[in-house]
From TrEMBL:
ATP binds at T13, T14, S15, T267, G310, Q314, G411. PANTHER family: GLYCEROL KINASE (PTHR10196:SF69), SUGAR KINASE (PTHR10196). Pfam families: FGGY_C, FGGY_N. The lineage of its organism: Bacteria, Pseudomonadati, Pseudomonadota, Gammaproteobacteria, Lysobacterales. Key enzyme in the regulation of glycerol uptake and metabolism. Catalyzes the phosphorylation of glycerol to yield sn-glycerol 3-phosphate. Belongs to the FGGY kinase family. This is Glycerol kinase. Glycerol binds at R83, E84, Y135, D245, Q246. GO terms for molecular function: glycerol kinase activity. It catalyses: glycerol + ATP = sn-glycerol 3-phosphate + ADP + H(+). It comes from the Bacteria. Residues 262-450 form the Carbohydrate kinase FGGY C-terminal domain. It comes from Rhodanobacter geophilus. ADP binds at T13, R17, T267, G310, G411, N415. Its EC number is 2.7.1.30.
Amino acid sequence: MAKRYILALDQGTTSTRAMLVDAAGCVAGMAQREFAQIYPQPGWVEHDPREILASVLVTVTELLTRSQVELRELAGIGITNQRETTVVWDRRSGQPVHNAIVWQSRQSMAICERLRADGGEAIVRAKTGLLVDAYFSASKIRWILDHVAGAQARAERGELLFGTIESWLVWNLSGGRLHVTDASNAARTLLYDIHRREWDDELLRLFGVPRAMLPAVRGCSEHYGDTDPARFLGAAVPIGGLAGDQQAALFGQACFEPGMAKNTYGTGCFMLMHTGTQAVPSRRGLLTTIAWDIGGRVEYALEGSIFVAGAVVQWLRDGLRMLECAADSQVLAESVACTDGVYLVPAFVGLGAPYWRSEVRGAMFGLTRGTRREHLVRAALEAMAYQSRDVLAAMEADAGIPLKELRCDGGAIGNDFIAQFQSDLLDVPLLRPRVQETTALGAAYLAALALGFWESRGQLARLWQVERRFEPRMPAPERERLYRGWQAAVQAACAFTPS
Ligand SMILES: Nc1ncnc2c1ncn2[C@@H]1O[C@H](COP(=O)(O)OP(=O)(O)O)[C@@H](O)[C@H]1O
Ligand SMILES: O=P(O)(O)OC[C@H](O)CO
C-alpha cells in the first residue's frame, strides 16, 4: 500500500493534536484532545505523563478511524511538544516517579534563587543562551530529585531517566528502546551547551543532575527508529522528526532566513526570530536558542517567551465564568470601542520575557464603576498584544533587524480582534497563514525531509500561503498613548508586594 501521509503529533500544554499531512502539504485530517491541568498549589502546574501518552494514542486512533486511513499508509511520524516540561521515570518499570512539572510551574523557584545568589547566572547564560529561571527543565529535575525519596541515588545508578515530553513519548512509543531528545529541546534544559552542542559537565554539577539520566541528543530531522507494534497500535512506523513546538512552528511558518519571525498565540505567546547560523546573544531579556539541527547544521533563533496569553481567556471562561467559550471573547471585545482605560497584567505565574520576574502576580488597573465585562475581556485580549510588543522591541534591538512582517499562528490568533490590535500596536503587517496548525506542520515537514517524503526546504517555503493579512491602521499617537498605559501597568504590578 502506498505511503501517502506523514503523521504529526503535537503534544501541547493544554491539548494533544494528531494531524495527517499529505504529499501536497495539505492537512488531510486532525484530531484533538484536552487533558487535565493539575494545580497542586498556587503557581504550580503539573501534568500526568501517563495521561499525556494516552491522549496521544487516543487522538491517533480517532484520527485514523475518522479519516479512514490505515497505519500502513503512514510514511512516518514527526513529534513536537510543549518544551521544558519535565518527566522523570523509572527505566525498568517505565513509570514516572512524579507528575510532569510543566514549563509554567514556579515550584522550583527557590532552587533558582539559590543558584543566582551563588553566582551561577553568568555560566548558564554563556553556555545555554538562557537564564536561571524555573521555566527551564534543570531546576525541575532538581526539584523532583529532592522531593522523591531515594531519587538522587537511583538517578546516579542510572535507574531513573529524564526527558522532556518528546523524549517521554519516543521512549514509550518505541517500547523503551529509544531514550533520545533533539537539539531544539535539549537547548531548553539549562544543561546543554548550545555552542559546543553537548551536555555540559559544569552545568550538570551546578544542578546536581547525574549524566546517567540524560537522553542522547540527536538532530531534528532523522530516522531515530520505529514505533514498537506492541506499544503503538500494532504497527512499526518510522519516527523521523523531533522538535520543540515553538521551533517547529518557526519551521512550519517557513521562517528559514535571518530576520524572519513568527509569534505563536497559544497558552503562552512565543515570538521567535531566525538568526541564521549565528547564536545572537541578548542584552534585553530574550533567549538565544537552537532553532533546529538538520544534518549537523545548526541554525539559531532569538526568542521572547510570554507565560500567559491564551491562558487568560481560559481563566475568563473557567475561573471567572465570564465566557461560554473562547471565541465569545472576540464578540465581547469588539462590542466596546476601547477598554475605557482598563489594563490587565496577566502575570499569573510571574512575568517572562523581557522582565523575568517570577514573583510578580497578575493585576488589573483603571477600574471604575462603569467597567463592564466587555472591558475586562477586551483588556485581557489586548494584554497578549502588549506583551508581544514588549518582546518585539527587545528583539529588534538585539538582532539589529527591524521586523518587516510577523507571521502568526496558535489557537488565539484565530480571533480577528487580537490579530488586528496586534498589527496596530506593533505597526507591522501580521500574516495569518492558510494552515494555522504550523506547529504540527513543522513536525511533519521535519519528518518528511528525513524520510524522503519531501526533498527540500524550498518546496516547503512554496507551500506556505497567507489566509489573511492584517495591516496596521491605528494612528501613531493613539498607539503610543495606549502602550504607555501598559508600561505603567506593568511597573505598578511589579511594585506590588503582598505582605
Ligand atoms: N477565539 C479565541 N480567542 C481568544 N483566545 C482563544 C481563542 N481560541 C482559543 N484561544 C486560546 O488559545 C489557547 C489554545 O491555543 P493552542 O494553540 O491550542 O494552545 P497550546 O498549544 O498552548 O495548548 C487557549 O489558551 C485558548 O484560551
Ligand atoms: O504548548 P504550547 O503551545 O503552550 O507551548 C509551550 C512552550 O513550548 C513552552 O516553552
